[in-house]
Amino acid sequence: MSKMSDKSVINEEAADWVVRLGSDQRTRADEEAFQAWLDQDDAHRRAYADHAALWAGLGRLAGDEQARAILLPSHRGVGGLSRRFALFGGAGAAAAALAAVVAAPMLATQTYRTAPGEQRRVSLADGSDILLDTDSELRVRLSRSQRSLFLDRGQAFFKVAKDKARPFRVFAGADEVRALGTAFGVRRLGEGARVTLEEGRVGIYRAQASAAAHPSDRPTALLEPGQQAVLGPAARPAVGPADLRRAQAWRTGRLILEDNSLAEAAAELNRYGSPRIVLADRATAEVRVSGVFHTGERTAFVESVTAAFPVEVVRQDADEIVLARRS
Fold it and tell me: Buried b / exposed e across 46-68, counting CB within 10 Å, b at 16+?
């Protein structure tokens, strides 16, 4: 392939990247593949800087689909680009655009955390509201083109402000939950997550195994209000009806148990701090319990359980309450 052909191909790829990264379908896999493409050759960086500077110089026309088709078609050669680019700042703009490209992974990210037993309400600049549950961590990155949030641990409920130009994207492990205006909850479960939709509609998108491949624009699952999806690192999302009463309970500091094992109850309550509930053996762990309890009152839970079920306290201090099945 000739040098001119190489240059033409690089310019086509650069133009495609500008369009792709400015799209509301941009994904984390796109960003990783783009960085890999940049690192392959300095010519890639120069070509992208030229195209990005042109696009940035267009200002409000960047959102015009007709302008997009005319000014950044991927089949255009470098000559046309160079003539148009000269109108929008030349080498200085190219240098600024390149600096922005290199700094893209370092965009300011706000991190929100809660301690065990703490809940925190967060209001975002776009008008969206978030409630973070106990022992949770959420990273938020807002820009003019996208709203990206990363739930690293714990649980959060999102009340999303409508913004058709910037889909609201929550990343949990290998999955992305994408919405416009809606209300939904996400809870991390190891490497997976559980998504519960209350209002609107959300799509679940699975990251590609290879960062070099463009992810499909088709969601792996779509949720309607009242549905829940359980996401795992390997399997397709398992979608089914949600018990919204139980799913919403944590937001008012309650835990609803309906024939759950004591092990499940203890694990849930222990997320909210000390004293921790410790179960003496498997027989104790398998005791089935039902009822409505306050997440912040573990001592009251123990009193209720020991009064209503065949369980007793065998040891208690400031840090732990040990339960055993009553003989």
Answer: ebbbbbbbbbbbbeeebeeeeeb
Q: What is the DSSP string of 210-251?
A: STTSPPPSS-SEEE-TTEEEEE-SSSPPEEEE--HHHHHGGG
The partner residues of 311 in beta bridges, in order of sequence, read 325
**CB atoms inside a 10 Å sphere around CB 237:** 21
Question: In this structure, are residues 88 and 54 in contact, taking their beta carbons and an 8 Å threshold?
Answer: yes
Give the number of other Cβ atoms within 10 Å of residue 134's Cβ.
20
Q: What is the DSSP string of 54-121?
A: HHHHTGGGGG-HHHHHHH--TT--HHHHHHHHGGGTHHHHHHHHHHHHHHGGG---EEEE--TT--EE
Q: From CA 137, how far away is CA 223, in angstroms rounded?
A: 24
pLDDT in tens, 215-268: 456 888 999 999 999 998 777 888 999 999 999 999 999 999 999 999 999 999
* Cα separation, 304 vs 54, whole angstroms: 68
Q: In the predicted model, is pLDDT for residue 59 greater than 90?
A: no
Using CB atoms within 10 Å of the CB of residue 312, give its burial: 0 to 12 exposed, 13 to 18 middle, 19+ buried: middle
Query: How much of the chain exceeds pLDDT 70, in percent?
Result: 75
The whole-angstrom separation of Cα 297 and Cα 293 is 8
262: enclosing H helix or E strand: helix 262-270
- Of 145, 108, 100, 142, nearest in space to 125 by CA: 142
pTM of the model: 0.65
| More confidently predicted of 138 and 163 | 138
Q: What is the rounded CA–CA span in Å between residue 201 and residue 261?
A: 33
Dihedral over alpha carbons 239, 244, 246, 248 (to 10 degrees): 110
